[in-house]
Structures are given as structure tokens and as C-alpha cells.
Amino acid sequence: MKAVLMTAPGSPGVLQLQEIAKPTPGNTELLIRLVAAGVNPIDTKLRSRGTFYPEQMPAILGCDGAGIVEAVGDSVQHFRPGDAVYFCYGGIGSHQGNYAEYTVVDERFVARKPASISFAEAAAAPLVLITAWEALYERGRLEPREKVLIHAGAGGVGHVAIQLAKLKGAAVATTVSSPDKANFVKQLGADEVIFYQQTDFVQAALNWTGGEGVDLAFDTVGGETFQKTFPAVRIYGDIVTILEPVANTVWKTARLRNLRIGLELMLTPMSLGITESLQHHAEILTQSAAWIDEGKLKIHVSHQFPLAEAAKAHQLLETGSITGKIVLLITDE
Questions:
Q1: Which domain holds residue 248?
Q2: Are strands 84-88 and 64-72 parallel, antiparallel or unpaired?
Q3: What is the pTM of this model?
Q4: What is the pLDDT of residue 55?
């Protein structure tokens, strides 16, 4: 089969299309013919810095996949050949990722693809859905009628987070950089749009909440944005970030306001081999598929590349100005 291999850490040029052996499913695994694979910031970070398992090279990146079950292991109970599925598994160095024509995944970690969307849209969804779900619903404990500030609402995680917050019954403010992105997030349900390059987002959030601050802030940007957000959160409120706080973070305001700090890394179950949590990810995708098919949740794909142009996809993602998601198209369907 064809696959894009990362031969060493470095620039996008280290991603090379090669021919490798087709995998064989184990007892509880599905052999999936991949139709599309999502491209995420974690892919570019692992490519440039090295995977979590540097001793296992070359590596195939790509955590997100969508495709069709081609064969099943002897003990598989819930899927059969021909089923359309989507999932977030592999791609961090320990297991084959999805920049390939085929992969194998345990049936417990897979969900049925939403019937109403394309394979490209389905492949764009899993990592951002799980990340936003865990950050808002589990780390941030978001409740109906609360007010949430979501940074970079037009991005991959952000555009899904807006919708999940609205599905919970929350009010949403979000930061964007352009009128086009403002229109995009309004269509997703954002109640308050903040142009962070022209406006102090903290003051805007305080004005929006009558000076109290938001109940929950969701940081998808990191760096100084995380610390700058502390005064925008109400006393005893929550802030969740998907990035590691920088070493020089000043925590004084967060401590004074008794903020509850949440750290969200949806790759933890895969990194540590926590089967129960990986099954929970599949449950999140199953519920999200129902919402997608009911028209309550949308996944925006802004760019599509053929598998052989994975390096170009990485170059585009690293510009940092993408609305929605980038996808690799692997086979026609």
C-alpha cells in the first residue's frame, strides 16, 4: 500500500510517499481502507520535533481517519466489511497513523461515520470533536446558561467548540482576526465576536458579562494568551487550555480569583494505553455523529490535498491562518 512516511524530524520535506506492506487485523481489529485523513497541528509538531516514540522510525503520522471496513478479526462483534467508520487513533509514533491507504484499529476505538457528511468531513472531525468535548464538558464542567469565551473560534478546535457550547445551552463569545471569520463564527452560533487585534479581549469579555467575567474560558492558542485570559474569567471560574502553559506564566491573577485550571490533551489515552478512555472517545464520536446527522453540528473543511501532497498540507497549516480543517484525500469513494 501507499503511505506517507516521516523518515526523520524536520521540515515538511521529510514526508515522503512510499510503498509499504498492507497491515493485517488482529482478533479485535478492523482493517480499514482509508478514504481521508485529517491534518492537525499535532502532526506538524511531531514532524518538526520528533514523535513520542523516536526509537520507532520511520513513522506514519495522522491521528484522524475515515474509511470503509475491508476485513475484520475473528473476535470482532460490532462491525463488518462495508461499514463506514471514523476515529482518532494512531499517528503519534507507537501505532501507524492515517496518512496511508490502509490501517488497523481495535473495534472498541471506532465509531460509525455520520451518514450525512463526506468522508473528508468525517476525517476532519474526531480529534477536534474529542478535544472540544473534553475541554468544555469534562474539564470545564460547562452548564446551561453559562457564558464561555472561546479563543480562535474559526479554527479547527474553536469552530467545533462554539457549536458544542451552544448545544449545551451556553452563551458564547469568541475571538477572531477578520470579518470573514466573524461571519463564519456567527453562522455557528457565536453570540459575541471579538476582533482581538483591534480590541482588548479581556475588557470586551468583561463588558459582555456586566463586569463579572465569563464562567469558562477555553484557550486554543497558548503562549501569553493563556495568562492574559485570567482576568476575563469570573472569580471561582474555569479556564481550560489545550497548550502547555509557558514556564514564565505569572499565576497571581489566577490564584487571586481562585480559578480552576484545566489542562486538556486528548492524546493522553493513546499515549498511555488507557483502553477505557479510548472507548470513551468512540462514545463521544457516536454522539457527535448523531448530532451531525440531525443538522446540529457541522465540520468545516477549508482545504483538501491528495495523499502525495501531505507536505503541502503541513506547509499550509503552519501558516496559522486556517479556517476550519485541512484533509488529505486518499482514495475515491
A1: 128-263
A2: antiparallel
A3: 0.95
A4: 86
